[in-house]
């Protein structure tokens, strides 16, 4: 929940201009607060994807304040973020609710980024893989065979979000490999699904993270509010990466 019209104009314009000079094939998506989606979309053109940070589990009706996936699609969005750790933590979103939102997003024709991740307590109890695997399996349980091409998974260890702490590239790779194992067990084309890392990704740690074989990109938080920092992260993406 950051931003203003001035930030939108300056940040989107700056990122768009710098992105045109990249030759590594990186795909960049901006996911602003919903009030700024139309402004971002107008400035982004075709070079930047645009998404929403959250959608409702309902399609329409007497649910004041909610935003449906169909509305986001109508505004020209390409993506919707579902199950972010802050939605789970502060708004009590359960795995069942997240799964319902994933279904709404895919039914609307949007692409979905499903966020999963363990808390520090989960990790200290040795349950990190169990928690994340369960979130992946339940969140994507309703995905049909023809919808997998519109699914991205973002692993964001809760203890590393906004704290300055980052999982080591080896730890992140281990969890990403586990996520692919779960996806394969669900009948998904696991090697074709992008799995992103989110959790205090910065210019100085992005290259090491993106060099890992199962880390396809990043879900960038605070660093995305500074154009040069964000573009440094984009430049860290190997040319062979998918996202």
From TrEMBL:
Q: What is its main location?
A: cytoplasm
Annotated PROSITE patterns:
TIM_1 (PS00171), TIM_2 (PS51440)
Which biological pathway? Answer: Carbohydrate degradation; glycolysis; D-glyceraldehyde 3-phosphate from glycerone phosphate: step 1/1; Carbohydrate biosynthesis; gluconeogenesis; Carbohydrate metabolism; erythritol degradation
> Any idea which residues are catalytic in this one?
84, 156
What would be one Pfam family of this protein? TIM
Q: Which GO terms describe its cellular component?
A: cytosol
Q: Which UniProt keywords apply?
A: Cytoplasm, Gluconeogenesis, Glycolysis, Isomerase
Q: Which InterPro entries does UniProt cross-reference here?
A: Aldolase_TIM (IPR013785), TIM_sf (IPR035990), TrioseP_Isoase_bac/euk (IPR022896), Triosephosphate_isomerase (IPR000652), Triosephosphate_isomerase_AS (IPR020861)
Question: Which residues are listed for substrate binding in this entry?
Answer: 162, 200, 221-222
The protein's annotated catalytic reaction(s) are: D-glyceraldehyde 3-phosphate = dihydroxyacetone phosphate
The subcellular location is: Cytoplasm
Source superkingdom: Bacteria
Q: Name one GO molecular function term.
A: triose-phosphate isomerase activity
GO BP term (any one): glycolytic process
Which family does the entry's similarity section mention? Belongs to the triosephosphate isomerase family.
PANTHER family listed in its UniProt record: TRIOSEPHOSPHATE ISOMERASE
Q: Which NCBIfam families match?
A: tim
Subunit architecture: Homodimer.
- Protein role: Involved in the gluconeogenesis. Catalyzes stereospecifically the conversion of dihydroxyacetone phosphate (DHAP) to D-glyceraldehyde-3-phosphate (G3P).
What name does the UniProt record give this protein? Triosephosphate isomerase
Q: Which gene encodes it?
A: tpiA
């Amino acid at each position: 929940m950051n931003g203003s019209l001035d930030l939108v104009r300056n940040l989107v314009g700056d990122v768009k201009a710098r992105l045109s000079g990249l030759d590594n094939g990186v795909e960049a998506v901006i996911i602003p607060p919903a009030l700024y989606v139309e402004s971002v979309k107008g400035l982004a053109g075709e070079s930047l994807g645009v998404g929403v940070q959250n959608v409702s589990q309902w399609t329409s009706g007497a649910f004041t304040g909610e935003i449906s996936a169909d509305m986001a699609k109508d505004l020209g969005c390409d993506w919707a973020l579902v199950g972010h750790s802050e939605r789970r933590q502060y708004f009590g979103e359960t795995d069942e609710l997240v799964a319902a939102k994933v279904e709404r997003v895919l039914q609307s024709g949007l692409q979905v980024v499903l966020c999963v991740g363990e808390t520090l307590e989960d990790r200290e109890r040795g349950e990190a893989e169990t928690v994340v695997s369960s979130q992946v399996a339940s969140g994507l349980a309703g995905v049909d065979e023809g919808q997998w091409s519109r699914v991205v998974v973002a692993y964001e260890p809760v203890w590393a979000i906004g704290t300055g702490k980052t999982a080591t590239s080896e730890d992140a790779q281990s969890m990403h490999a586990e996520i692919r194992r779960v996806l394969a067990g669900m009948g998904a084309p696991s090697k074709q699904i992008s799995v992103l890392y989110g959790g205090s990704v910065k210019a100085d740690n992005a290259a090491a993270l993106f060099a890992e074989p199962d880390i396809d990109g990043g879900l960038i938080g605070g660093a995305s509010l500074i154009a040069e920092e964000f573009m440094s992260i984009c430049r860290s993406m190997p040319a062979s990466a998918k996202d």
